[in-house]
Write a structure and sequence with these properties.
alpha/beta
Length: 477
């Protein structure tokens, strides 16, 4: 009798403890913060199928977009890589003195800001920087558990291209090489991110894993199979391949970034054949990075991490492919400011689109809110989580700048002022995208628009940020 009682008691205790353990495991599962896969792409235009284009082959991006919220009106806050990335990672607006050009460092321009990866690391996340996240790999080093940069010669694959590169400033602007994907930097990057996923799968910690792709940045170098996806004879120059006289001359530049490459004329327009070759190369590079992203997303699924991981993909700014006879970025026309931005939140997104105007400084507070973290007071952006929850965005504007150019995007209007260091305008530009989506008719000097100009000028100053004209780096005690 005693033995039977003891047996019943032991079994009862076992099931009670099992229930406690199971409840605890379920609680831990529910309370564990979601992972974040953070994909940054250099110089990526929103010239993709899910944005209405139908000529670039990017099946993996298309599939991801079909599971995401697609932002149709996302804008970078500054159209140059280093500044754009530092602004995005801190959620802070560029000013006349902060986040100026490609070569800035977050640690130098805004050291007191708590960056997104640092906030996540402080709150238990494993943070890994892979590839190009900041312009300089060691910038914001305290924010990362690990920083990885490829040691491969990622620029060119062919010996003859490498030789030209060694003897010149930048080498050739294009390369079509019959080589494996992993010979270039982004192919090695994909393999590294896959290994990270396999390692992080074994951890109990949530992760913030980044994938900073170098392409489609110049030079347009990609394996031959991606070039073969396109017929150059079918490639056309953009409809906006013109520089109207009504547009201020200050709006145009000599695309010095491209001019540094071999076989590019130092002045004047590019020959049409060369322009089409560059466009062809850009398309090939987009298809190449699409394949690398696909490998990573496939591994995320294979490891059963999909349902626990937020995936966000963004390009650091737009890029001109002959638009207004310009190449590269460094302007405030829409082609340099508008960017691809998609976010997949498990259980929430399934291919919806929003035309709410979104700025890149909004990414930080949105991710922080999604994982339940308090947003630091150095963040200027506004969370777009309400949009994810099906609510209407209250924001209908964005502000972008580059050097003296400051642009207010409000509804269909794109209003730019060139200002001096006191904030006084010395040139203006206004486009109405409702009637002029290609930005070919500057309305700023037309009498009928002067009241509109006055109102936009006032609003621009109200929205460009309280410290826009303050040199905070050099005015500290």
């Amino acid at each position: 009798m005693k033995q039977q009682f003891l047996k019943i008691f032991v079994l009862s205790l076992f099931f009670t403890l099992s229930g406690v353990c199971q409840t605890t495991a379920q609680k831990n599962l529910k309370t564990k913060k979601p992972n974040i896969l953070f994909i940054a792409v250099d110089d990526l235009r929103p010239e993709l199928n899910f944005y209405g284009a139908n000529h670039i082959k990017s099946p993996n991006l298309d599939k991801l977009a079909g599971e995401s919220l697609i932002f149709e009106r996302a804008y970078c806050n500054v159209p140059v890589c280093g500044a754009s990335r530092a602004s995005l990672m801190t959620g802070a607006r560029p000013t006349r003195y902060r986040f100026i050009d490609a070569h800035i460092k977050k640690d130098e321009d805004f050291p007191e800001a708590i960056s997104l990866p640092y906030l996540l690391k402080q709150n238990g996340y494993q943070t890994i920087s892979n590839g190009k996240i900041y312009h300089y790999g060691q910038d914001d080093a305290e924010a990362w558990n690990e920083i990885w940069e490829s040691k491969t010669l990622w620029t060119f694959a062919l010996p003859e291209s490498q030789e030209i590169r060694e003897k010149t400033k930048r080498g050739l602007p294009v390369e079509m090489a019959d080589v494996p994907d992993s010979l270039y930097r982004d192919g090695q990057l994909a393999l590294k991110v896959i290994k990270d996923l396999q390692k992080l799968k074994q951890s109990n910690k949530p992760f913030f894993l980044t994938m900073g792709l170098a392409k489609p940045h110049l030079p347009f170098a990609a394996p031959k199979k991606y070039w073969d996806l396109y017929d150059r004879d079918k490639i056309e120059l953009p409809k906006s391949y013109v520089q109207p006289e009504t547009t201020p001359k200050e709006a145009f530049h000599n695309f010095g970034e491209l001019r540094q490459y071999e076989n590019i004329p130092k002045k004047r327009d590019l020959p049409d054949a060369l322009a089409k070759e560059l466009i062809h190369g850009y398309y090939a590079c987009v298809s190449y990075i699409d394949a690398q992203i696909g490998l990573v997303l496939d591994e995320l699924k294979r490891l059963d991490l999909e349902d626990d991981t937020i995936v966000i993909l963004w390009g650091d700014h737009g890029w001109n492919l002959g638009d207004h006879k310009l190449w590269c970025k460094h302007v405030t026309f829409e082609k340099a400011l508008r960017t691809p931005l998609i976010i997949k939140v498990p259980g929430k997104t399934k291919g919806e689109k929003t035309d709410a105007i979104t700025e890149y400084i909004d990414i930080y507070p949105s991710l922080a809110e999604l994982v339940g973290l308090e947003i630091p007071n150095t963040v200027d952006g506004k969370s777009f989580v309400p949009i994810l929850n099906g609510q209407k965005s209250e924001k209908n504007w964005a502000v972008s700048k580059f050097k003296d150019m400051v642009t207010l995007i409000k509804g269909d209007l794109f209003y730019t002022e060139w200002t001096d260091n006191k904030g006084v305008a010395y040139q203006r530009m206004l486009f109405d995208h409702k009637t002029d989506p290609l930005e070919l008719d500057n309305l700023a000097e037309k009498p009928a628009y002067q009241e509109t100009i006055k109102a936009l000028s006032k609003e621009l100053r109200e929205k460009w940020g309280k410290n826009f004209l303050v040199d905070t780096k050099n005015s500290k005690p």
